[in-house]
Design goal:
Blueprint lengths: L5 H16 L11 E4 L7 E4 L5 E6 L2 E6 L5 E6 L7 E4 L5 E5 L3 E6 L4 E7 L9 E7 L4 E6 L3 E6 L4 E6 L5 E6 L5 E6 L3 E6 L5 E6 L4 E6 L6 E5 L4 E4 L9 E2 L11 E4 L5 E5 L4 E6 L4 E7 L9 E6 L4 E6 L3 E6 H6 L3
Antiparallel strand pairs: 1-28, 2-3, 3-4, 4-5, 6-7, 7-8, 8-9, 10-11, 11-12, 12-13, 14-15, 15-16, 16-17, 18-19, 19-20, 20-21, 22-23, 23-24, 24-25, 26-27, 27-28
Keywords: Repeat, WD repeat
InterPro entries: WD-F-box_domain-protein, WD40/YVTN_repeat-like_dom_sf, WD40_repeat_CS, WD40_repeat_dom_sf, WD40_rpt
Length: about 325
């Protein structure tokens, strides 16, 4: 029987590691530009819909900054310990910050507090877990830890409430024409519900809690991921389209953030570590993985957003904004 030497064993280990992790090993992109928006790690952070502004929570303050220049535009004192979520309106005129059972809204153009509102769920112990704010007319969606969704229509002075999930709502979004609400939660459900009645029109169930979710501009494509190994691209309104499972070699991956390109061609996902992955949304195949700029060993992406020119903007827990030219990256995969 032929003996295996040390060099052969080393080669076998290298081959095995390459086989298991070669597809997902991130690489540094020397072309992407980045900008520091904070000098310290942040607790919460969101990118505006047009990817020109970001809101960050750190040091007991919410700071709204211009992404390209890093110039601070607004800054407000908040209760940092109890803050649960941030949201910028689609026209960057309003900022919402949620706390346990309270919502504060600032008028960014007037640099002043617009109002504070109390919000409850079906359970007396429910707290706000997700908030999304829209302007012209002003509309607020607030998801609760008990699975309740609250819709506050300020123009018509209406408040609607529905128990859409059996556990904490972790993701919320309202489609481009404000007709369908995408919600996902720790019950493993992702749903599209009518904004007028709050009744579900589409739902899909995973076995474990949803850790990331994203929707296309018109909800023609949904992405959903659980806490283990179920990650799917869904076509809610297609009669023939079956769910597309993401294709990778590891046993499982953790997905922390996600964004779909306007054309529906690409999916970007953030991990629990210092890298993100670009996928072909048509077939679920990985195109490449990229390492983000980081200032700490615990850096990870908190939010990501595509614009119409396929520039992906990412915001990390280090308060670093990066800009990625997806057309170039997709054309030159490793």
């Amino acid at each position: 029987m032929k003996s295996v030497g040390k060099n052969d064993r080393k080669l076998s280990i290298i081959v095995l590691v390459t086989f298991l992790f070669g597809c997902s090993e991130p690489k540094k992109d020397p072309q992407n530009a980045y900008n520091h928006l904070s000098e310290a790690p942040i607790d919460l952070g969101v990118i505006s819909q047009d990817a020109t502004v970001a809101a960050l929570l750190y040091g007991g303050k919410v700071t709204v900054s211009d992404i390209s220049s890093a110039k601070i535009m607004n800054q407000f004192e908040v209760d940092q310990l109890n803050a649960s979520d941030l949201s910028l309106s689609q026209d960057n005129s309003l900022l919402a910050v949620s706390f346990e059972n309270k919502l504060s809204v600032w008028d960014l153009r007037k640099n002043a507090l617009k109002g504070q509102f109390s919000i409850a769920g079906h359970s007396e112990f429910a707290k706000i877990s997700q908030v999304v704010i829209y302007a012209n007319p002003m509309l607020v969606l607030a998801g609760m830890t008990d699975g309740t969704l609250n819709l506050i229509d300020f123009e018509n002075k209406l408040t609607k409430q529905a128990k859409l999930h059996d556990a904490k709502i972790s993701h919320l979004n309202l489609g481009e024409h404000r007709q369908l609400i995408m919600s996902a939660g720790h019950d493993g459900q992702i749903k599209l519900s009518h904004v007028t009645s709050l009744t579900p029109k589409y739902s899909y169930a995973l076995e474990k809690r949803v850790t990331s979710a994203a929707s296309g501009a018109l909800n023609e494509t949904l992405f959903v991921s659980d806490a283990l190994n179920e990650q799917y691209l869904l076509k809610p309104f297609s009669d023939t389209g079956m769910p597309i499972k993401l294709n990778y070699r590891e046993r499982f991956r953790w997905f922390r953030a996600a964004a779909l390109s306007p054309s529906g061609q690409y999916l970007a996902t953030g991990s629990s570590k210092y890298w993100w992955t670009l996928w072909d949304a048509k077939n679920g195949r990985q195109i490449d993985a990229f390492e983000i700029e980081s200032a700490t060993s615990t850096a990870m992406i908190l939010d990501m957003h595509f614009n119409k020119d396929n520039i992906l903007t990412t915001l990390s827990s280090d308060g670093i904004i990066e800009f990625w030219d997806i057309n170039t990256l997709a054309a030159n995969p490793k």
